[in-house]
Amino acid sequence: MQNHSDSSLNSTSLTTANLVSSGLMGFCFMIGVPGNIAVIFFIVRHFKMDNFTVHLMLNLAAADILCLITLPVWIYNQLYSWSIGQSSCKFFAALVYCSAYSSVITVTLLSVYRCLQIRHPQLWSRMSKRRERALLISGWALALLFSCPSVLAQEIVQSKSKKSCGRILHSEEYRLTAAILEMLLAFFLPFTIILTSYCCLHQKVTQGTFSHRQRLTKLVTRIVVTFFIFYAPHQIINLFQIFEIVFKSSLPVFSAKLHEIRSSTGDIAGSLTFINSCVNPFLYAVASKTLRQQK
Length: 295
Hints:
CATH class: Mainly Alpha
Number of helices: 10
Number of domains: 1
CATH topology: Rhopdopsin 7-helix transmembrane proteins
Distance between the termini: 34 Å
């Protein structure tokens, strides 16, 4: 989500982290964009569209594409200088944050839906197609709302050697609030819901009467686990930022060490979140036969 640094972290020259981050983003763009486009075309052509799980997977692929198409801009921002204006800076940041939050919300809905569909099938059967569409639209609206604090702080940062598009956080209190909100809304809250859903789902899905649904549930589980693996490093860096601010006065040496770690690894951790968008098409491809047969 945050492949560009806060203003306090901008350096005057390219670093190894810049080059590694740019390389990862370039790989993600080349693999992820055509992969997710292929997923959308394949699902629309072959899958049964009366399944809400399939609608959620289409939504996730769309969010992945929206996020990945911004990567050439961020690669240029890492390697050179931002030259397309402040409005563009905010626009591309909005695409990244909104699509990332949409991915989080969609993965959460996937887990909740699989739980309800298996444990309480009659409850979800009362949900009309119109309400399902409203739920998807509400997810995007919520993603846009959650991304507002980060987008509003996005500005063109002037360092000694170049301009870059990054977040300008004018006070320690704002930085702390932004980091805590991002961890809560993009990680802890959704994954608490996801884990609760899977705890409720586990007993039913292992019973023989539900064996025909196990493969689709395993696919959703893989999507969730993959999502966790590639988003966790970014959230760990966010946690370092929180500790850095909290202990700045009482433990200045410890705070400075956290700042150093965050400066050297933050861009790489942020770039890993894009890999998640590249892995999903391969998960769909492995389970394509199951999904086509699923009702």
